[in-house]
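Let's see one such:

===
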Amino acid sequence: MGWAARLLEIGGGIEGDDVLIPDEIARVESLSAMIEAVYGDLQDGHSLFSSHAILTPLNKDVKVINDQVLDRMPGQVQTYQSIDSIPPGEVQNQALYPAEYLNSIDTATLPLSSLRLKIGCVVILLRNLDASRGLCNGTRLRVDRFFPTLLQVTIISQGAYSGSSHFFPLIALYPSDSKLPFSFNRLQFPVRLAFAMPINEAQGQTLDKVGLFLPSKRFTHGHFYVALSRTRTGSEGIYLYTPDPTTRTLNNVVFREVFQRLHGPFEPI
C-alpha cells in the first residue's frame, strides 16, 4: 500500500484505534536527538527552518522545545517584555489581578509575556493582520532585525508571499480562547517561536522534514493524520520520539460519526 493510501485509511479511522508505526519512520531516543535530526547543526545557519518543524500535542512541550532550539542557535537573545493591563472600566479587577499575575498567563492565542528571540529564529503569526500581503494567522516568519518597538520579519511559509519582508509594531492583543473570569490585553509582538508547533496548528503546513515528539501515545481527533501528512516526502521525512522506543503502535482517535454526518468520503486536510 502506498503512503497516500495509508494516510487516507488512518485519517478515516479504517485501520482502527491502534495503528502500527510504519517501519520507514526513523525513531529517536531523546528530545536532543530529535532537534539534531530535524534541524542539524544550528551553528550553520537557518536555511532549513522554512521547511522543517517539530510537532507535538501539548503547548507545554511546544514551549520547552522552542526554548531548547533557540538556546542552541548562535547569536544574542533579545527579550521583549509585554505590557499587560485590564480595561479601565474594570476597576475591581484591576485591584484583584496585578500586572505580575497578568504576565504569568500563558494561553495559545497570545504571545508570551516575556518573548525571547534571536536573529534568524522562526516565529508564527498569531493574528490575521493583512491577507493581501500574506500576513495571516499561522504564517511562519523569520526574524531579521530588532528595533525597540518594531520587528522586521520575512515570510518563509510557501506561497506567493514567501520571501517578502514586513515590519510589525507592538499590538494590543486580547486572548480569544481564554476561560478567565476577566478580560485583559497584552501589548506585544503578535508572534510565538515556531521551531515546534502544536499538531492542531500544523494544518496547512507543507514541510520536508517533521519531528513528532509524542510523550504520550494518545491523541485527540485527527491529530495522528495531521501529524503524519505534513511532509511532501512521505514517511521518509518523519522522525518519531516516544518514551518507549520499542512501542509499535500509536492511538489513532477518529470520530467516525463526524464523517457519517457529512455524508461524504474523508478528504485530506
User: Anything to note?
Assistant: The first helix runs from residue 3 to 11. The mean pLDDT is 83.
